[in-house]
Specification:
Length: 431
């Protein structure tokens, strides 16, 4: 009768195990990943927690969810461990993601890796989950180990990358070289081009880059790479690159005083506001995190005025080296470091930018999908979706239990018949 107890155990405790398995399908805490929004998927590539990872995860934004249980999905891993790089979604097919630069590494065990700059560009086809290393014409080898950059891509498929540093490993001298060049990659021809810039353009890394519809790239924050000064003044003197004329200008900005920082995140709203979140100040000597910000600041790119909005709801914690994307009216933050001691998190936080409110539920914006509005009216669609999930699990469980029960019954029938034969055999001898 023991198998029956096992079945009973499975029926009673099975659902908890399955729930446990679902809970395990969550990425481990990390920072320094790069991210791209592809349709309703917010992808995260690589990242680091003591050692780099080659994992690829995404959150599915096609359904509502509670931020404490984001709908995580893992995808096909990258060919290399990846951190401090940048990624751009192709505007040509809206499905290929190009990862450029970054610290790429070969992971040799759970605790060991080495930096191996095999390729400076990786292409991810999000439809087929395939990774390729594209051949690049005219590649400039000085870009090989470039990282701490943020690229933008224009509507024609031209990627623009400014500056960065070329950390290779801690044994090289100097450990970093800093750059102020503009590298471009035209993804329609896979052609690289490097433009050296005038001395007056500061070398920066750890900045954010935001492409405006008028072709201007706005570079905010970051660290001026001079080996001496690590704090930047470009929160008040913002460097702007014109992708049409290939010229630089400096925008004097006014309004609220925003503290200089690096490794913050920035998103562009439809009305031309750049919203930044978090970032950090690092110790000049040790390079370690000295302070992490949890503030929101808004740069109006029409008037070049900084402002600090009134924010309600429970704020996200301080975050640096995190990811951010704007999906409809939601600024979604993910992963990152919260302090010098909490270097890796796996939480996500959502700011409703319509009224600067931190929300705990991601609700499918109803304005663009009236059908969902009626569906979720009065009853949260999170519940609706999770009940669908449980129905799915229930059916799956049912099938498994049925299969187990049938095979156990089959086994008993077989065993009983066999037993009868065994018992019957000596009987025949006796008679
Ligand atoms: C989200 O989930 C947490 C943890 O399970 C729960 O405490 C909270 O009430 C939920 N929030 C909403 C809006 O359902
Ligand atoms: C903010 O706007 C959302 C709709 O976008 C609304 O549900 C929420 O109640 C508003 N919050 C506050 C504090 O006004
Ligand atoms: C919410 O769902 C419950 C049970 O499914 C139902 O009784 C109730 O009428 C629903 N409320 C609304 C506002 O649709």
């Amino acid at each position: 009768m023991k198998p029956l107890y096992y079945i009973l155990f499975f029926v009673i405790f099975g659902p908890r195990y399955i729930f446990f398995i679902i809970c395990q399908n969550v990425p481990s805490p990390r920072s320094q990943q790069t991210s791209s929004l592809v349709g309703t998927r917010f992808y995260f590539f690589g990242g680091s927690s003591k050692i780099p990872t080659n994992e690829v995860w995404y959150i599915d934004l096609s359904n509502s969810f509670n931020i404490s249980t984001p709908p995580w999905h893992s995808d096909v891993v990258m060919p290399v461990g990846y951190g401090l790089g940048t990624s751009c979604l192709s505007p040509i097919d809206n499905s290929s993601v190009f990862l450029v630069g970054g610290r790429t590494s070969i992971i040799t065990s759970a605790t060991t890796f080495y930096y191996a700059y095999i390729s400076s560009v990786y292409k991810f086809n999000s439809k087929t989950s395939q990774w390729t290393t594209p051949t690049i014409n005219n590649f400039n080898s000085s870009f090989t180990s470039r990282n701490e950059i943020q690229a933008v891509i224009d509507n024609n498929g031209k990627i623009f990358i400014f500056g960065g540093n070329d950390y290779f490993d801690s044994t090289t001298t100097p450990i970093f070289n800093y750059y102020n060049d503009i590298n471009t990659l035209d993804i329609t021809t896979m052609t690289w081009s490097t433009q050296t810039q005038p001395q007056s353009v500061f070398s920066f890394y750890g900045y954010t880059a935001t492409l405006l519809p008028n072709g201007l790239i706005v570079y905010i924050g970051g660290t001026r790479g001079s080996n001496i000064s690590t704090s930047s003044d470009n929160i008040v003197q913002i460097q702007v690159f014109d992708t049409k004329s290939y010229t630089w200008s400096t925008k004097p900005v006014s309004g609220s005083t925003i503290t200089s920082r690096r490794y913050h995140s920035a998103v562009l709203t439809q009305d031309g506001n750049i919203i930044i979140y978090g970032g950090a100040i690092h110790n000049n000597i040790s390079g370690g995190i000295a302070y992490v910000f949890s503030d929101i600041a808004v740069l109006n790119t029409n008037s070049w005025v900084w402002s600090v909005p009134n924010v309600s709801g429970t704020s996200a914690p301080p975050l640096t080296q995190h990811s951010a994307a704007l999906y409809k009216n939601y600024m979604i933050l993910a992963f990152g470091a919260s302090s010098a001691s909490i270097l890796y998190t796996n939480n996500i936080y959502i700011l409703d930018i319509k009224n600067y409110t931190w929300v705990t539920t991601f609700n499918i914006p109803t304005t663009t999908n009236p059908a969902r509005q009626t569906q979720s009216n009065g009853n949260s669609s999170t519940d609706h979706d999770s009940s669908n999930l449980y129905i799915g699990i229930g059916i799956g469980m049912g099938v498994i239990i049925l299969a187990v029960v049938l095979s156990v019954i089959g086994f008993f029938i077989y065993k009983n018949r066999h037993k009868q034969e065994i018992i019957a055999t000596p009987g025949t001898f006796n008679t």
